[in-house]
Amino acid sequence: METVVLIAVIILMIGIGMRWIHLLNAQHEARIEAYHFSDPLPRPPGLPDDAGRRAHHTDAVR
Predict the structure, then answer these.
(1) How far apart are CA 55 and CA 52, in angstroms?
(2) pTM of the full predicted structure?
(3) 7 vs 11, 57, 61, CA distance in Å?
(4) So what's the pLDDT on residue 19?
(5) Backbone angles phi and psi of 15, in degrees to 5
(6) According to the model, what pLDDT value does residue 60 have?
(7) Structure confidence at residue 54 (pLDDT)
(8) How far is CA 1 from the centre of its chain?
């Protein structure tokens, strides 16, 4: 009988933990949705379309 009660308590605790994690995830998702990111900064004038390092250093010594 004690084994059945122990297994029931373990299953109950797992269920409570799963519900708690689900509620925390929902709260976190709501917080992310509420935060609005700003628009990206405009490209400074005079820069080429591809301003990456490889676009400028194609003749690099290896």
Answers:
(1) 5
(2) 0.51
(3) 6, 65, 67
(4) 98
(5) -65, -40
(6) 56
(7) 56
(8) 45
- 48: tokens are 């080429």
What are the tens digits of pLDDT across the range 10-53?
A: 999 999 999 999 999 999 999 888 877 777 777 778 777 665 55
Report which DSSP code applies to 58. Answer: T
**Tokens read off for 50:** 């591809």
Contacts of 13 (CB under 8 A, 6+ apart): none
Query: SS in 3 state form for 19-48?
Result: HHHHHHHHHHHHHHHHCCCCCCCCCCCCCC
Backbone angles phi, psi at 5, to 5 degrees: -65, -40
Has residue 4 got a pLDDT over 60? yes
CA distances from 9 to 2, 14, 18, 45 (A): 10, 9, 14, 66
